[in-house]
Design a protein that fits this description.
- The chain is mainly beta.
- The protein has a single domain, classed as 6 Propeller (Neuraminidase), CATH 2.120.10.30.
- Helix content is 9%, strand content 44%.
- It has four helices and 27 strands.
- It has a five-stranded mixed sheet, with no helix packed on it.
- The longest helix is centred in the first third of the chain and has 20 residues.
- It is globular and about 55 Å long.
- The relative contact order is 0.14.
Length: 394
């Protein structure tokens, strides 16, 4: 076809441009996502609003005063002091923001303010709350004096009647009168595994009288695992390619998403759905032979569990979800390089705030006060430590 004049050529080209752009930007949203109310969709090729730089500023770990046996959970208070749980010594080490050692809280035992298995920690203004999964209680300490305040028993008894049981796994702050206790999943040895998904849930625990509310606050599918029952024993194996519910609770909102899609559902602290954020994503293809070879040196039954699994064709959309103290969502996406996470940061308004790559062996644990805190292994000493990085958005 030949254009007769400049104007007609221009109009024809403009129409092609308009229709071409409409076709390119059309987003195919799955029905189960499109049906959500207050859904914000971020285009797959959206450019982040900011670049991000991380600058290493401090290290927390072994010092002249203390040697950590086995690093457990980590948290940070509003003053930037860092709290590291020592799983082997059952104490909590406290560091100043610059990395210098301050003191320790607790000791091993069953008495008031003592620990057997530190599972979860939460900072609330001038208090530190610590959940022990063996003694089934939450101990509270004053952050300024480091003195013990009280213990709150978690009323709980295992129910072994089903093919899986729920047990208190972690806890979160709801308000000054209540904790949220999250129940994980424990499979019963010798039981017959069922096709339906095992469910995790939470209940509200009254901080004043130690009683649970009757109703569950939320409930969702637990993370998929490789499972095998044999001779009245059960074998469980966590795999990166399995899908699961990732969640984060920060005192203002509760957020979670099934890792198949880059979709985050936001709820208020009473469990009411508020809105959702979704970014279409083509999940990375999974090479079955590469996965099998990765576990070829494992002993039985682990090796055959991997080899006989009906693996999905792709990796999940994301592996980890965290929230910072600005209510932004940080999600770690799978990358073509299996030693890298592609981190994406989303605002509550549904904006792609920033994106960056980070080595998998520098696991982000906490984002607070303008800093990222990671769990890393020192290449020279082989010691596990927490490293603080200052965040700069450009």
């Amino acid at each position: 076809m030949t254009c007769q004049n400049t104007i007609s050529c221009f109009l024809f080209s403009l129409l092609l441009f308009i229709f071409g752009c409409s076709s390119d930007t059309e987003i195919d949203i799955p029905d189960h996502i499109a049906s959500l109310e207050n859904l914000t969709v971020i285009p797959e090729n959206a450019e982040p609003l900011h670049a991000i730089e991380l600058e290493r500023t401090a290290v927390y770990g072994d010092t002249d005063e203390v040697i950590i046996g086995q690093l457990g959970v980590v948290t940070v208070d509003e003053q930037g002091r860092v709290y590291l749980a020592d799983r082997s010594q059952n104490v909590i080490h406290i560091y100043e923001p610059d990395g210098s050692y301050l003191t320790k809280i607790g000791r091993e035992g069953d008495g008031p303010g003592e620990f057997r298995q530190i599972r979860s920690m939460q900072v609330e203004e001038d208090k530190l709350h610590v959940m022990d999964m063996t003694t089934m209680r939450i101990s509270t300490f004053n952050l300024n004096s480091q003195n013990f305040i009280n213990d709150l028993e978690i009323p709980f008894e295992f129910d072994h009647s089903g093919w899986y049981s729920n047990f208190p796994l972690s806890f979160y702050l709801k308000n000054e009168n209540n904790f949220i206790v999250h129940y994980g999943v424990s499979y019963s040895a010798g039981s017959t595994l069922q096709d339906e998904a095992a469910m995790e849930h939470s209940k509200v625990l009254n901080r004043n009288d130690g009683s649970f509310a009757e109703e569950k606050l939320y409930e969702f599918r637990t993370t998929e695992t490789l499972t095998k029952t044999e001779n009245n024993s059960i074998y469980l194996m966590a795999m990166d390619y399995k899908r699961g519910t990732k969640y984060s609770i920060n005192g203002e909102h509760m957020m979670w998403g099934w890792s198949e899609d880059l979709l985050f559902k936001i709820h208020d602290m009473d469990g009411n759905y508020v809105r959702a954020i979704y970014q279409p994503l083509e999940n990375r293809p999974l090479n079955r032979n590469e996965v099998i070879n990765k576990y070829a040196d494992r002993t039985e039954p682990w090796r055959s569990m991997v080899r006989n699994d009906a693996m999905p064709e792709t990796w999940p959309a994301f592996s980890t979800m965290l929230t910072d103290d600005e209510n932004r969502i940080w999600a770690a996406l799978f990358d073509d390089d299996d030693e890298i996470w592609n981190w994406r940061i989303f605002t509550q308004l549904g904006e792609l705030f920033a994106s960056f790559n980070r080595p998998r062996n520098k696991q982000i644990q906490e984002i607070r006060n303008g800093y990222v805190y990671t769990r890393e292994t020192d290449e020279e000493t082989g010691l596990v430590q927490v490293v603080k990085y200052g965040i700069q958005f450009n």
